[in-house]
């Protein structure tokens, strides 16, 4: 804002405008953090299931393919 515009906008209104921008920025940070957390959880869960499958294959199935898998 220019000096002239600062005089037109009351101090309270200017503070509200800045608070809206602050809240928008904070909301964006929270949304980005949640998305990152979802991605990490998804990758971790996928790796867990893969390891469980590998363990079952090695220990129980003795690395033999099921007849349905042929």
Explained architecture:
The protein has 70 residues and is mainly α. The chain has one domain. The chain has two helices and no strands. The chain starts with a helix and ends in an 11-residue tail after the last helix.
Please sum up the structure shown.
With 70 residues, this protein is mostly helical.
What is the N-to-C order of secondary-structure elements (H for helix, E for strand)? HH
Structural class: mainly alpha
Estimate what percentage of residues fall within beta strands: under 5%
Mean pLDDT rating: 81
The N- and C-terminal alpha carbons lie at a distance of: 71 Å
Morphology:
rod-shaped
Number of domains: 1
How many strands? 0
Tally of DSSP helical segments: 2
Helix content: over 70%
- Radius of gyration, in Å, reads 28 Å
Task: Jot down its keywords.
70 residues, rod-shaped, 79% helix
What's the layout of helices and strands?
Elements: H1 3-8, H2 11-59
């Amino acid at each position: 804002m220019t000096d002239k515009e600062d005089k037109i906008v009351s101090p309270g209104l200017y503070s509200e405008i800045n608070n809206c921008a602050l809240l928008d920025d904070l909301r964006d940070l929270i949304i980005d953090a949640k998305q990152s957390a979802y991605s990490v959880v998804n990758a971790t869960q996928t790796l867990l299931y893969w390891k469980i499958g590998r363990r079952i294959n090695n220990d129980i199935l003795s690395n033999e393919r099921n007849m349905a898998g042929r």
